[in-house]
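Example record for the data management plan.
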Amino acid sequence: MLYAQTPAHEKRRLFRERLASGEIMRFPGAFNPLSARLIEQKGFEGVYISGAVLSADLGLPDIGLTTLSEVAGRAKQIARMTELPAIVDADTGFGEPMNVARTVQEMEDAGLAGLHIEDQVNPKRCGHLDGKQVVDEHTALQRIRAAVDARRDDNFLIMARTDIRAVDGLDAAVDRAKKLVDAGADAIFPEAMSSLEEFGAIRAAVDVPLLANMTEFGKSELFTVRQLADVGMNLVIWPVSLLRLAMGAAVRGLDELEETGSLNGMLGQMQHRADLYELIDYEGYNHFDTSIFNFRVSR
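Corresponding structural encoding:
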């Protein structure tokens, strides 16, 4: 009922323990708090909160238009709804190194298990768009050092994302990954790798957890969890998948409504009200205090 029972610091501790085990962990992207609860119900290991999704939710492109307060506020709403650890996309940290430091503490306070900071020029671009630019090595490392220095909970995961592969090639990505780890990054997110061999090259270069981004319609082939585990990945995200599925269903529903004037033919494709009520835990609220919450859940 209400929000998760596990405190944020305990989620972080358990997440770090599981990550250290070497098993691969699956983090589908939640586009709202309810979808985060569904991810937990279906047995996944964590929740990812995508900057592209948060932008799209506001009707904006993923080009650095969202603010720290917008991202932290929405991330808090999502993270508190699940017992699972949640990782958030913090873009370039929303400014200079001091802004990065504040971003880390805001996300800690919002109950996140970790975040990733990228090495793109600000304002950034979606990692699978052309025309990206990355900052120089000094700036990239300064961001990560600021993030590490700012955190108050040692279990809060500081992940460094590098977009340099699409700009300067794989060798540059390997070199930058090594230096980001030396700067204190707990994990590396090598963006827009084009093959399993490229993921493997990053794995061979660093001895920290690695994240693979399996976003659809991008520059990376869509590998299976097993394939990624076999080349040493530790985390897999599908950042926009649930949003794409939901919006695809919404388009089909509106088309059906426009064409036939009714949605009777699509009832079988909808989440049943009883399933929605179970996910929200209506019964838990009903039993909390029957002197006040005395409604009944109809089936």
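Summary line stored alongside the record: The chain has 13 helices and eight strands.
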